[in-house]
């Protein structure tokens, strides 16, 4: 089924060339079905690249998904034109009275800052708090996962001596779990971050469950016990070249980055990058949309007002 996006969004042409079914708002207006409504808070600098990555995953499911793009502020972006932002993005004031089936909060290049030092931290907290009453399930990615665990569960991250960048092997929980249906015992996922959460601290928290972790990269998939919040510490949405692009960018800026681990063939940056996470990324988002959004959300989103969808089903 298609993912519905605004007319003329640049990602449409890229996705259509990959045979990913997208539908314009104009065409979708004639569809007599109840699509899933997903809000994306895009905190990454290159908005169009991140839009395309996420829409690629959302478009690879059997559900029709309507996507709204949300920005954290209306200041000019260094990597995305103001015309694009004004045309396709909404401000929080325009959506906060609405309810959504799902919310995705992306990573952000803020890994070395304390949360309280982030210029828009108060706004991030406001959106996270709002989501707990207005969204069936929230998917936090990378930096957003750390931010969500800190704000909602008072868990603190640890800054690393150097950036953790690469593709790491993870082991899933042996316990049967809807989110892990179809997962192999071990799978790969990319990471690109300056901090990590202590796995033991997460496991000791009564409201959280670790579903997948890595000996090298730590906790990867963490789910709240009430199924509302899903924290993914890495970047399942990354395309094949993303880690390479980040590595070359850091080199150009004179940062002397380490070569991303287990990413280039023979760990040699002059050789081909190897993508080993696309199938897992698609499965993770498909399972989230199916089991934690579609299966739990009320048909009429107005039923969500003032109570959680789980309370409304009890």
Description of the structure:
The chain has 314 residues and is of the alpha/beta class. The chain has one domain (3-160, 193-237, 277-313): Rossmann fold (3-Layer(aba) Sandwich). Helices cover 31% and strands 25% of the residues. The chain contains eleven helices and twelve strands. The chain has helices at 11-17, 25-28, 47-58, 82-88, 92-95, 121-134, 143-153, 199-204, 242-252, 278-294, 309-313; strands spanning 3-5, 22-24, 36-41, 65-70, 89-90, 100-105, 135-141, 157-172, 186-197, 208-214, 218-224, 229-232. Strands 1, 2, 3, 4, 5, 6, 7, 8, 9, 10, 11 and 12 form a twelve-stranded mixed beta sheet that branches. Strand 4 (65-70), helix 4 and strand 5 (89-90) form a beta-alpha-beta unit. Helix 1 packs across helix 3. The longest helix has 17 residues, at 278-294. The radius of gyration is 19 Å and the shape is globular. It starts with a strand and ends with a helix. Residues 28-32 and 306-314 have low confidence and may be disordered.
Compact summary:
The chain has 314 residues and is α/β, with parallel strands linked by helices. The protein has helices spanning 11-17, 25-28, 47-58, 82-88, 92-95, 121-134, 143-153, 199-204, 242-252, 278-294, 309-313, and strands spanning 3-5, 22-24, 36-41, 65-70, 89-90, 100-105, 135-141, 157-172, 186-197, 208-214, 218-224, 229-232. Strands 1, 2, 3, 4, 5, 6, 7, 8, 9, 10, 11 and 12 form a 12-stranded mixed β-sheet that branches.
């Amino acid at each position: 089924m298609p993912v519905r996006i605004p007319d003329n969004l640049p990602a449409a042409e890229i996705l259509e060339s990959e045979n990913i079914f997208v539908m314009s708002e104009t065409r979708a207006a004639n569809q007599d079905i109840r699509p899933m409504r997903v809000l994306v808070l895009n905190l990454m600098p290159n908005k169009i690249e991140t839009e395309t990555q996420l829409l690629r995953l959302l478009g690879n499911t059997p559900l029709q998904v309507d996507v709204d793009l949300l920005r954290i502020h209306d200041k000019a972006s260094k990597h995305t034109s103001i015309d694009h932002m004004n045309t396709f993005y909404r401000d929080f004031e325009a959506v906060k009275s609405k309810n959504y089936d799902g919310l995705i909060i992306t990573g952000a290049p803020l890994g070395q800052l304390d949360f309280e030092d982030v210029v828009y931290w108060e706004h991030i907290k406001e959106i996270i708090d709002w989501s707990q009453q207005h969204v069936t399930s929230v998917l936090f990615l990378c930096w957003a996962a750390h931010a969500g665990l800190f704000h909602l569960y008072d868990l603190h991250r640890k800054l690393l001596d150097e950036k953790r960048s690469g593709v790491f092997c993870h082991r899933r929980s042996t316990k049967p779990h809807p989110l892990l249906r179809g997962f192999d015992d071990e799978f790969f996922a990319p990471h690109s971050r300056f901090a990590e959460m202590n796995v033991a601290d997460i496991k000791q928290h009564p409201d959280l469950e670790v579903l997948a972790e890595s000996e090298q990269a730590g906790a990867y998939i963490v789910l709240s016990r009430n199924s509302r919040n899903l924290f993914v510490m890495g970047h399942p949405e990354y395309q094949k070249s993303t880690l390479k692009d980040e590595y070359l960018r850091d080199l150009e800026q004179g940062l002397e980055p380490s070569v991303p681990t287990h990413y280039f063939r023979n760990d040699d940056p002059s050789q081909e990058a190897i993508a080993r996470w696309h199938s897992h990324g698609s499965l993770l988002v498909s399972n989230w949309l199916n089991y934690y959004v579609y299966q739990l959300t009320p048909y009429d989103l107005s039923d969500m007002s003032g109570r959680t969808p789980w309370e409304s089903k009890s």
